Automatic annotation (TrEMBL):
Keywords: Aminotransferase, Pyridoxal phosphate, Pyruvate, Transferase. The lineage of its organism: Bacteria, Bacillati, Bacillota, Bacilli, Bacillales. PROSITE patterns: AA_TRANSFER_CLASS_3. PANTHER family: AMINOTRANSFERASE, AMINOTRANSFERASE CLASS-III. Gene3D superfamilies: Aspartate Aminotransferase, domain 1, Type I PLP-dependent aspartate aminotransferase-like (Major domain). Belongs to the class-III pyridoxal-phosphate-dependent aminotransferase family. This is Taurine-pyruvate aminotransferase. It comes from Fontibacillus panacisegetis.
Length: 461
């Protein structure tokens, strides 16, 4: 079909072009045969406007917990524009000043992680961490084959095939096999649905101890790393109990297994600390960062690591282990690095991690009020990463039917608030609503989110 493209298309033209040409992520396009696809046109702070001028509170920071500093930050746009005029891009084995400054800045925030490797997406940052770990151990123990990666069964680490193989959410893996080998699973750490049927604190943290059993099953010499989201996001909002990571780390150290923390969502203030792992007594070996790193103003991700791991790549110039055998064309792009630097400056100057902590407490208090409703089973989260689990009844904890969650999200949207729900089709785990507003949100914004949600839930009773 042929279209005449105008430079300022009307809302109706955009809807038509959308229906004719787009193939959106995780979206059932059949629904657009009867419903108009939503198109977001502009944003300021935590508010958004669609192409028809309807206003929304952005309860999801750009749809997928990304825009930590909020929309419409001119200083980021200006910094990127200046850099692009000076030098848009140079990569490979030669760095640019923004890459250098960003690496130094990240290390100032994470002093135990002095080496910074840049790429473009969360999936890529995690893939890099797996490749680093594998090459590191292959150089350290030649011939030993210490390469396996262990993950939790509700965590998500990305869309590319190895990142998917390291993800626990079975619903995302179906039909994409065979996936790469060398990945093994341990249970999640959600107390509300304890995989061992126990209750905290009388449980000996069996969910973390399960790691040792899997390491032994897989062969202790073969396991290279464990990857976890410090606080699981898309798998159901799961903040583990305080004792969880010390137990996990002790097992890792005993078997010389590296601990990779995927802070793609939890980084940069999302959970009320600058980084999610800082809520716990734990020292990761590698951290991956993406979404809040530049708040989505430019695509960028980072894999940051302890010195010792980097030093494993310093063999002589003719040795194949004298460098990390990996590249990413757009990793370290000058414009993206500048966006990240300005974004981090804003997060620090405006103390957005503190605001996330304070507003997170308020959001949680207000959502806890909803627990009086018979379909609200569990409210959980940390900072501005919060989930509401809906059930048919509180005793059986039977998940509320999917179509009813969809109705809640749609009603809330009609009320002018955007929230999310978990990806479909896993009985027992697809019944969580998410809220993760920009870190600049205030009590008024939170009241709008919770009031709309209460109305929507009451309609389901
Ligand atoms: N890790 C986590 C924890 C994520 O939530 C995501 C994306 N939602 C990823 C990795 C993958 O990031 P990307 O989509 O940028 O590849």
């Amino acid at each position: 079909m042929k279209h005449t493209l105008t430079s300022t298309p009307s809302a109706a033209e955009l809807v038509k072009l959308h229906r004719d040409h787009l193939w959106l992520h995780l979206t059932n396009h059949k629904t657009f045969e009867t419903q108009e696809p939503p198109i977001i046109a502009e944003g300021k702070g935590y508010l958004l406007k669609d192409v028809k001028g309807k206003e929304f509170v952005d309860g999801l920071s750009g749809g997928v917990w990304v825009v930590n500093v909020g929309h419409g930050r001119e200083s980021i746009a200006n910094a990127v524009s200046e850099q692009m005029k000076k030098l848009p891009y140079y990569a490979g084995s030669m760095a640019t000043p923004p890459y250098i400054m960003l690496a130094a800045k990240l290390t100032s925030l994470l002093p135990e992680m002095p080496k910074v490797y840049l790429s473009n997406s969360g999936s890529e940052a995690n893939e890099k961490s797996f490749k680093m770990v594998r090459q590191y151990f292959s150089a350290k123990f030649p011939g030993k084959k210490k390469y396996k990666i262990i993950y939790r069964n509700r965590d998500y680490h990305g869309t590319t095939l190895a990142a998917l193989a390291s993800s626990g959410q079975q619903e995302r893996k179906t039909d994409f096999g065979p996936l790469p080998e060398g990945f093994a699973e341990i249970p999640h750490a959600l107390c509300y649905r304890c995989p061992f049927g126990k209750s905290y604190p009388g449980c000996s943290i069996d969910c973390a101890r399960a790691l040792e059993q899997v390491i032994q099953q897989e062969g202790e010499d073969t396991v290279a790393a464990v990857i976890v989201e410090p606080i699981t996001a898309g798998g159901g909002i799961i903040p583990p109990v305080p004792e969880y990571y010390p137990v996990l780390q002790e097992i890792c150290r005993r078997y010389e297994v590296l601990l990779i923390m995927d802070e793609v969502v939890t980084g940069f203030g999302r959970t009320g600390m600058l980084f999610g792992h800082q809520h716990y007594d734990v020292k990761p070996d590698i951290i991956t960062l993406a979404k809040g790193l530049a708040s989505g103003y430019m695509p960028i991700s980072a894999t940051v690591t302890r010195e010792e791991i980097f030093n494993g790549f310093l063999a002589g110039p003719d040795d194949p282990n004298g460098f990390f055998r990996d590249i990413s064309t757009f990793g370290g792009c000058a414009g993206s690095s500048v966006a990240a630097l300005e974004n981090i400056r804003i997060i620090e100057e405006e103390r957005l991690a503190d605001n996330s902590a304070a507003m997170g407490v308020y959001l949680m208090e207000r959502l806890k009020e909803l627990e009086e409703l018979p379909i609200v089973g569990n409210v959980r989260g940390q900072g501005l990463l919060v989930g509401v689990e809906l059930v048919e009844d509180k005793k059986s904890k039977m998940p509320l039917q999917e179509n009813r969650l969809a109705q809640v999200v749609a009603f809330v949207r009609d009320e002018g608030v955007i929230i999310g729900r978990m990806m479909r089709s896993v009985p027992g785990y697809n019944n969580v609503l998410y809220m993760a507003p920009p870190l600049i949100i205030d009590t008024q914004g939170i009241d709008r989110i919770v009031d709309a949600l209460r109305k929507a839930l009451i309609r389901q009773l």
